[in-house]
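Example record

One chain of 111 residues, shown exactly as stored in the release files.
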Amino acid sequence: MKLSELVEKCELRVITSLPLETDISDAYIGDLLSDVMGNAPSESIWLTVQSHMNILAVATIVGARAIVLCNGLHFEEATIKKAEETGVVLLESDETTFNLALKLLKSGLKG
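Predicted structure tokens for this chain:
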């Protein structure tokens, strides 16, 4: 499924100015960076409440296509700037992580 479809169906706010036509094949939920590094599938969308710059390195290592910051939280400016440099799409949602995961499933993403 295209990331742009998920953004529209799940009402996600796009934070970075990067293309959204990448394919998303899975999702992962995690806030412990070592857990995400060890378990997140590539080509996934990652749901978290972490907003610091270290998440970009983790996303790059595992091949996550986008990071969604849940619970109405906002990314730090330094993280946004670095994400645009590294090509990681940042998204935000007012939904809880659980509710957003349900929306992703209902929108057709196969986990």
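Notes: Strands lie at 13-14, 26-29, 44-48, 66-69, 89-92.
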